[in-house]
Amino acid sequence: MSVDKEESEYATKTARSRALHEEALAVMPGGNSRTTTFFDPYPFYIQRGQGATIWDADGNARLDFNGNYTSLILGHAPEAVVTAAQDAVAKGLSFPGPTEYEIRLAEALTRRIPSLETLRFTNSGTEATMNAVRLARAFTGRPKIAKFEGAFHGTHDWVMVSVTPDPRAGGSARKPKPVAWSAGIPPAVLKHVVVLPWNDADACAAILDKEGATVAALLVDPLLGIGGIIPPAEGFLARLREITERLGILLIFDEVISFRVAPGGAQERFGIRPDLTTLGKIIGGGLAVGAFGGRRDIMDFYDPRRGKARISQGGTFNANPATMAAGLATLEALTPEAYARLDALGDRLRGSVSRFLEGTRRRGQVTGVGSLFCLHWTSSHIVDYRSSRPKDLEMPMRVFLGLLNEGILLTQRGLGAISLAMTEEDIDRFVNALARVLARG
Ligand SMILES: Cc1ncc(COP(=O)(O)O)c(C=O)c1O
Asked: Is 285 left (phi over 0), alpha (psi -120 to 50) or beta?
């Protein structure tokens, strides 16, 4: 079935959402406040979520493999988290000063992530990477940052570079050129961002050896999350650690997504100690959150005790009690057994999807780690952003809409996240639904 046919079937099931979208268009450009969540013909309006299921305004139930873009690791409205947030809210919504909740969540995170000696909270992953980049520049006195082609680190200017570049504009694969991801990114930003190819350690070494003296930080999502969950090749992250240490570049792990793959995140799973780490999503239990932290000597740039802090960090709602309480209750549920269960569900999904795709003539693959997975519509050996690009650019949207029509919610680019509310039957439902979508066209 073509995208158009999937779209018209979607439209027959979502009349109320269409009406709401039309109302929204009068007051918001495109009708909402998150570019990521918009899709043609219009997004469905969500009424509620419980466990692994999300319901829209027309009463359609869908099994949710999006999980608010990987944030809802326990599923929707887990009782312990809702109760913790409600208890906190009942004592006051937000305050002009710290609460004990903030200490307890900071303690829980520093216990889990040894490289996180101290940290500070923000309201989003974007603010976390923005602060980490500023901190790296302040600490090293160097102006540039390095990042990977295809990596997403939020929506502030310094990281809105080479996120989904057209390879024809992106220069050579081994020495990519910085490409603005959005209108409004000043040329000065592009002059200060060095772009690296994922999983090519020799190319990274060559670029950084040349640029190193001016580079403050290398920002790394250890799974290239939004870039398609493309795991690092054996030894790749260790080479990055060696290169950055040798050149005096701070290594920042952006674990906003990858923290969900182990109690101590991807850095535990791959055995690397970065200088700084950024966090978000699951650590707020479903509420707005971010955090950045790492080496105490670096983080001390935020210490205001001796006169003025060298870096100022504001945020009216930073570390608000509801978010801190929800985050803490979420981490408490994430026991070693919980990770083992998520890993097993992830292996089941990836194994079944791979076997199914191998048995068809489709050029499709599934990548992933732990509870994260991503569908790719290419037969190329996937190692980086360029090799993961679909040969048929319509295919991800066709699969996304097809799955919606089958009662399954994924992300538009094919990235999925398994929650603890799911069962083996839910995983099998996903695989069977995907098979039906692919059989349609
Ligand atoms: C790796 C990474 N960093 C940063 C962000 C930005 O986080 P937020 O959406 O909370 O601003 C994201 C969001 O998906 C992300 O995947």
From this structure: left
Residue 174 CA: distances (Å) to CA of 28, 201, 214, 244, 374: 41, 10, 20, 18, 24
Q: For the chain, list residues with pLDDT below 70.
A: 1
pLDDT at 210: 97
Contact residues of ligand 1, CB 6 A cut-off: 69, 124-126, 129, 152-154, 221, 225-226, 254, 256-257, 280, 290
Point out the ligand 1 atom lying closest to the alpha carbon of residue 70. Answer: 14
What is the SS3 string spanning 364-392?
CEEEEECCEEEEECCCCCCCCHHHHCCCC
Residue 392 has a pLDDT of 87
Residue 129 three-state SS? helix
CA of 131 to the centre of ligand 1 (A): 13
- Residue ranges and CATH numbers for the domains of the chain are 3-73+336-439 (3.90.1150.10), 79-333 (3.40.640.10)
Q: Could you give the 3-state DSSP secondary structure of residue 47?
A: strand
User: For residue 60, how far is its CA from the centre of ligand 1 (angstroms)?
Assistant: 28
Q: Are 139 and 255 in contact (CB under 8 A)?
A: no
What phi, psi does 94 have (nearest 5°)?
A: -160, 160
- How far apart are the C-alpha atoms of 45 and 329, rounded to whole Å? 28
Report how far ligand 1's centroid is from the alpha carbon of 156 (Å): 11
Q: Which pLDDT score, from 0 to 100, does residue 363 have?
A: 87
| Alpha-carbon distances of 363 from 30, 161, 375, 388, 395, rounded to whole Å | 33, 29, 11, 12, 11
Structure tokens, 181:
């991801």
CA 440, 62, 328, 118 dihedral sign is positive
* Tens of pLDDT, residues 61-112: 999 999 999 999 999 999 999 999 999 999 999 999 999 999 999 999 999 9
pTM of structure: 0.98
Question: What pLDDT score was predicted for residue 67?
Answer: 98
Q: Write down the pLDDT at residue 2.
A: 86
Token digits of residue 35: 């570019």
> How would you class 310 by CB atoms within 10 Å of its CB: exposed for 0-12, middle for 13-18, buried for 19 or more?
middle
Gap from CA of 12 to ligand 1 centroid (Å): 33
Helix axes of 395-405 and 3-13: crossing angle, nearest 10 degrees:
30
Q: What angle do CA 387, 388, 394 make, to 5 degrees?
A: 125
